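Q: Hi! First time asking for a complex rather than a single chain. Here are the components, and I think there are two in total. Is that enough to go on?
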Amino acid sequence: MNLWLLLAINSITFGGLLFLLSAGFSLIFGLMRIPNLTHGSMFMLGAYVGASMVMTFHLPFWIGAAIAALTVAVFGGLIERLLLRRLAGAEQAQVLVTLGISLIVADFCLMVWTGDPISVATPPGLVGGVRFVDLFFPTYRIAIILIACVIGALLWVLLDRTRLGAMIRAGVDDPQMARVVGIRVSRLFTIVFCLGAALAGFGGIMGAPILSVYPGLDNDMLPLALVVVILGGTGSLLGSLVGSFVIGFIYNYGQALFPELAYFVLFLPMVVVLVLRPQGLFGKQAP
Amino acid sequence: MRVNRRKFLAGTAAIAGAAAFPMPSIAQGAPLKIGLLTVKTGPLAAGGIQMEGGVVTFLKQRNYTIAGRKVDFISADTGGNPAGAKVKAQELIERDQVDLILGPLASFELLAISEYVAEHKIPMLSLAAAEDITQRKPNPYFVRASATSSQAMKPLADYAAKELKLKKVITIVEDFAFGYEQMGGFQQVFEDDGGRVLKKIWTPIVTPDYTPYLAQLSGVDAVIQGFAGSNPVKFMKQYADQGLKYPVLTGETGGDDAELKSFGDEAIGMISACPYTIDFDNETNKRFIADFEKQVGNWPGFYAAGLYVNCQVVEAALKATGGKTTDKTAFVKAMRAAHLTDTPRGPVRFDDKGNVIGNIFIRKIVKENGKLWQKTLKTYTNIGQFWPFDEKKFLAQPVYSRDYPPLKS
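A: Yes, that's all I need. Here is the structure of the assembled complex.
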């Protein structure tokens, strides 16, 4: 009984982390139709930069996290401006370029941070856990759920309730018409890409106290982002949120109940969704 | 990465040398070509960089001359996968015409190239732990100076049962051959000594979150983990975060000295068994640690020490053959006959299948002067790959696997 409850609570926290990871991916893919395979690298880069800030320069965790998110945002902005801009609409080229960049980032991280894993201390104040009946629960994981919810809410407000959000949606639905009415679509896209990158970087440093930071983290996380977004539906914030928690549950219960089939269980729902509802649970029908 | 600076320099030097001395040098004066198959990119790079550091530290100490022969050192990056290992092994053997190969790192790389390398009669000194390469399917050109997968786990089990008086444990390790072999050896010795393995948990190699597995750990005296690469650091962090307090025991990869700087305080108290330990007290080890740290910037762990000892074995064999490597069979025989007394892990000799017999250290992670360090609790001496079993009986049973030995119900 306790095992079940523990798994349930843990599913929710893992879902929170997955949401931080996949929200940016969904944003970029959904709004700009760019299959950004550097997303895992951005997650890893954020984790490494943040880890350096916290562990080497001894900055407070949250300042380190902010620097990590900003650094990755700038990095994302540069990629978008200098490379992806020229490849608008050419999905195959975008896949190859982003895959190439992810390999470059991986070797860059190896050069700078070496191959030794870095363990990031849990931010003070969130160390320890909460005892709930006879279940122990780490405080930091609960904090991640809250942060994921706050970020989800902020993104929703941004996209659905602000002028900027309206402009972004207009730019996506009909870039020509948006330009005609005076919206600078190209700048909007850069903003979206930076935002998506910042979210990935922030997710990286938030995950670091749990996952630690090591070479290969990018490749470990990218498939999870893909599976969440495909399940939830691209471009749908609600889809990412629901997808993250569904995958969180499947991941936890799957590994506990069928450890031999851990990955099969994780990707099975993705296959089912692709067959029955290709646009994802909450995705819009492709135009 | 195909032509690195060292290779480039060696190449230019060779051309310059050829221009200056048109007469071909006699074979005996030719440099000894050592090829290293290591991993410098991708997730396994940490161990691979340690391996290269171990070799370079040794060669620098000898001024790139072993037993009177100049050494040409060629380092190749396999990328940590079997296909890459095959390509690089071919390059080393057919293009660079190396005299011997150090490495590769991982068992699946070793299995991919073992036959090919043996066909070309190239001596190979690896720390990849796949048991059958020195047991049921021996490679006659192979020498392993580190340990088989279970060689350190069996003394660990003995220590757990007899000294720590543990009765019930759960094992947790990655779902691949190295994991099966580690835990198979542990279980067999532990149960012979009166302990019980309640459950063996296998996790995918890529496991971002161990909590679903951690939730299953209960009702035991200790947890035995056998993780490798960056997984031990992640596992120990999540283990502590989950509030688990059972003592943790592990093998050479799970408590590697090279990761002392990566572990957090949650690793304090973890007991590990390893063919090398950083606190081993002799001059050779102290010099090795100091020189390695200067070279690489981290402490050496068992990957680095394994390669360093491999180089010492090559040196001993070269001395025995008078610097000759042309007769490969004789050279391998000389390596296997090597009897080293002064290595960073103490005395080392080999059995007739090329596997090492030497010390296994049981040590504990402690905090000293604000940093994590190892403290040796007990040294098992003269441990071979079959210990404590009889060789014939051991070889008659199947290789350790997911289902062997079976759990007692």
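A: Chain A touches chain B at residues 3, 6-7, 10, 14, 17, 106-107, 110, 114-119, 121-122, 129, 136, 138, 140-141, 207, 209-212, 214-216, 219-221, 224, 251-253, 255-256, 259-260, 262-263 (CB under 8 Å). Let me know if you'd like any chain examined more closely.
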